[in-house]
Amino acid sequence: MAGTIQVERISKYYNRNRPDEVRALSEVDLTIAAGEALAVNGASGCGKTTLLGLVGCMSRPTSGSVLLDGRDVSRLPERFLGDIRRRTFGFIFQQLNLIKSISVLENTLLPLYPGKLSMKEMKIRAERILARFDLTARAGVKVSRLSGGEQQRVAIARALIHQPQVIIADEPTAHLDSVLAAELLDILDELNREGKTVLIATHDPFVSNHPLINRVIRMRDGRIVD
Amino acid sequence: MIRLLKILEFALSSLARRKFKNFSIIVVYSFTIAVLASVLLLTHSLKKMAMDVLVDGPDIVVQRLSGGRHDLIPADYSGIIEKIPGVGRVQPRVWGYYYDSLNHTNYTMLGIDEERQRFVMVDGKAPADDDQCMIGQGVAGAQHAETGMDLLLIDGNGIGYSCEISGVFKAASDLWTNDLVLFTKDALRRFFAMPDGLATDITVEVFNAREVPQVAQKIKRLLPDTRPITIDEILHTYESIFNWRSGLMLTIFTSSLIAFSILAWDKATGISGEEKQEIGILKAIGWDTGDVLTLKLCEGMVISATSFLVGVSMAYAHVFLLDAPLFVPVLKGWSVLFPRFHLVPYIDAYQIIVLGFLTILPYMASTVLPSWKAAITDPENAMRGV
Amino acid sequence: MILHPGILALLLGAFVSLVLIFFAALAGVKIIVHWDPSSSSAEQLLLERTTYLISTIVGLVLCFSLFSGLLFLYTTDDIHPLFIGAMCATGTLNANPIGWNVLLIKGIIFFLASLWVIFNAIDQHCEDTPLVRKKYAALLILTPLLAMDLVLQFRFFSGLHPERITSCCGSLFATGSGTAAGELAGLPPATTMVVFYATAFIWLCTVLFCLGKRAGWLRLLLFLESLLLLPLSLISVISFISLYVYQMPSHHCPFDMIQKNYSFIGYPLYIGLFVGILFGLVPGIGRVLGKTTSLKREIEKRERKWLLSAFVFFSLFLVLSSWPILFGKFQLFPQ
Fold first, then answer.
1. Domain end position, chosen among C136, C162, C188
2. Which of A188, B183, C156, C273 could disulfide-link to B187, CB 3.0 to 4.6 Å?
3. Structural domain containing residue A53
4. Chain A within 8 Å of B382 (Cβ-Cβ)?
5. Cα–Cα nearest to A141, from A178, A103, A188, A176
6. How many separate domains does chain C show?
7. Quick one: C149 and C221 in the same domain?
8. Half-sphere exposure of B306 (CA within 13 A, CB side)
9. What domain count does chain A have?
């Protein structure tokens, strides 16, 4: 099954060879099996977000390599990464990163614009996914008018519209109350059961202890400690 | 292709969301285009009208020179010219200008004999005797004159002269008839106090257009005191005047366009925080630099195309429906050449391409760099909420 | 110097294109020097992102150059009444012969910029972008060409003196006028016709062979044949095709046919010729450049389309130019 991620000895420096050089990750090794649900734990600034960004093809490592289903993507030109990112990953961000001034439906469609699907096929997909998250009635409403929970669900719907193999969530519960957090984790659990790989960065013990999570790794100062 | 259309659709909705900012750009942009387009349409139309008049005119006009200045020409020169092979009709013309100090207008007075049937009468008939005249529609309008009334003029000897208006005529181009008053040749000679046997100039028709220069040379040789002017030379002079005028005005207005491009640059560079954040989101959810760049260029194209359409329509209305009121002060120089008239609508692909080059090209060029700068936003930024 | 709206537009366009391509070339030099695909430094990332800017600029410049070629012909045609003796664009071009060089430069820019855009697109589909350095080196050729375009146009228009009596297509393309163009027009139409149709036939056959076989030498042959066929086609337009289009036994002008009087037949005719030849050149160049596996794969994916385009577009040219010969009332050779 697709969705295996191998991270081999990756390091990431920011502002390399300058006085303000920052080493965000050093020599991290990690293998995530397809269908696994993994939580990355650690204090803020420990390199969690950087690791997720590298795995999710948002940026390239300074050294080391990232293999997606055996294919090394760490040296690909940026123009190929966008495509891979779209096809493989669904992102759920800490700040939901929704465009507030457009409707729920339009937000959900956003990732599909650069692809090959026709507008009609895009809408069919979006309707299906909105129905799944109980948002059909809200499809035409501007995101700024939605409640926090609804916004959360729109963000998830958008992350899933591409039918990605891997869900990457960065501190997804940081701004949520416990009810919403539970609801979110239930959804992730459901997706994981469908066979999707789930990768969550969090320092919230509620997440790490959730039955969804198969494995927890801890990070400190850009390294995996256990 | 599908991708492009979809991104274009997104660009449209994204422009619509930032109504105020984009609307203000479109207003300024279309106004600049409207000004440029007005200059082009106006000069092209004037040129076209003048050409239409000239093309119907004689192939050669023969003037007499005396002391290097235009002088009256003996009418019997036409007999000599007629004998040149290839020459058709040769006609001495009697014409001149008259300034009506009462109405502060200039008239062109033309003597006609047998060619009177060439004029399309709106009212009345051609002058039957030397005490009658007919006037163009423009003159009729300006003077509130109509058939049967008398036209009061001061003749070449300073004596009052009145003649009955026998009819009003019209012609294809306003340029031609607006200031025209027609008399019989004898009446006009008397009016201008012109000696008998002399004419203002002689028109020559040449059967084969290619022979015009040779005929002109022969006339010059046979009648050394004359100056034959060929239609090509007149066209050429008109071309020079019109091109020069419109070129000069365009140069001035192009500088205003460049100023606009700087504004556009400024607007596009100063991408708002909100817009920047949006681009970050798009990049994070899988749009790549090329997609965002396409989006930005589409936006630029939509703005250009909209402004272009609006601007050209505004110019069309300004020039052809309102007769270019904004340019009247600039065009004062022309009023010597042409009195009041209505412009004939005339627009072609060439003008559109020239306008596009002068307006869309600098705009697109000035938005490339800012668009690219916006497009290379790092996707990771969105993750960190920067 | 003539202040004419079209001339202002052309000079402005050439200037803007030059400024754009100059920046692109500067960025290109940086890429040539510092490009290192194995590095993941911020500098390399910026270079990668710069390639988007350069592609966009060259695309725009190509687009501008197409319109500017059209505008140039229109303008030279529009101002012909300024020159005594000129009856169409040819007369204006003769009033200052630099104009012919402007046309030549514009032609070269069209071909180079199109090829650049085509191969850039291919290169960007390869993960290892094997053509990077070659591409940006080619930009360094395109830049001086655009500079020449601006300078020559400026010299052409500023050197036009309306008082000058010029000769027009009637005399330039008149047989026995002693000019090179006159020589072309004076070529015996029958011989030219045979040579042209024979070459065109061989060219079309080569295209078909290329469609059937993968042999590299066939593509190279097609490339050379295209190089030969382009001037030959232009000569044929002057020598005999124009005669049939205008239905006049001595009117050889290659520009009149883009005018309304001839229902703009010149546009599809020249588009067919230039695009057909362009796609005839591409497969050969692809064979020479396609050394890496990734490039080979991308080129093979597209080659069929190129060859078909070449065939279709050139056939359009052939049909349009042969139509009046076969079906027109005008006959050059009385039977």
1. C162
2. B183
3. 5-16+23-224
4. yes
5. A103
6. 2
7. no
8. 17
9. 1
Cα three-residue angle B299-B255-C69, rounded to 5 degrees: 65
- Mutation to test the B interface, candidates A73, A88, A97, A108, most B Cβ within 10 Å: A97
C184 in any annotated domain: yes
Is there a domain that residue C331 lies in? Answer: no
Instruction: Of A43, A57, A44, give the one whose Cα is nearest residue A10.
Output: A57
Q: C158 with C172, same domain?
A: no
- Yes or no: say if C309 and C275 are a contact pair by the CB < 8 Å rule: yes
Tens of pLDDT, residue by residue over A47-66, are 888 899 899 888 888 889 99
The 10s digit of each residue's pLDDT in B19-42 is 888 888 888 888 888 888 888 888
**Residue C55 within a domain:** yes
CB contacts of A75 in chain C (<8 Å) are: 37-38, 40
Domain boundary among the residues C162, C196, C221 is at: C162
| Residues linked to residue B96 through DSSP beta bridges, in sequence order | B109
Residue C335 within a domain: no
This model of the complex carries an ipTM of 0.89
| Residue B242 scores a pLDDT above 70 | no
- CA-based nearest residue in chain A for residue C52: A79
CB atoms near residue B47 (< 10 Å): 20
Same domain, C79 and C143: yes
Let me know whether C287 and C210 are in one domain: yes
List the beta bridge partners of residue B160: B154
Record: contact B350-C53, CB cut-off 8 A: no
**Based on the domain organization, do C157 and C230 belong to the same domain?**
no
Distance CA B313, CA B306 (A): 11
- Give me the residue spans of the domains in chain B: 2-53+237-384, 60-229
Domain membership of residue C231 as a residue range: 168-326
Q: Which amino acid is at C311?
A: F
**Are both C1 and C144 inside the same structural domain?**
yes
pTM greater than the 0.80 cutoff: yes
Record: contact A82-B285, CB cut-off 8 A: no
Q: pLDDT, tens digit, for every residue of C279-334?
A: 999 999 999 988 888 899 999 899 999 999 999 999 999 999 998 888 877 776 76
Between CA A57 and CA A61 the distance in angstroms is 9
**Chain A / chain C CB contacts < 8 angstroms:** 25
- In angstroms, what CA-CA distances link A217 with A5, A9, A69, C210? 15, 16, 21, 59
Residue ranges of chain C with per-residue pLDDT less than 70:
1-2, 84-85, 162-186, 332, 334-335
- Both tokens of residue C146? 């655009």
Q: How far is CA C58 from CA A147, C30, C114, C278, in A?
A: 47, 17, 9, 17
Cβ–Cβ contact B54 with C under 8 A: no
At residue B149, the 3 state secondary structure works out as: coil
Name the one residue in this structure whose structure tokens are 């909105």: A130
Distance from CA of A39 to the nearest CA of B (A): 17
Q: Kindly determine whether residue B382 and residue A93, on different chains, have CB atoms separated by under 8 Å.
A: yes
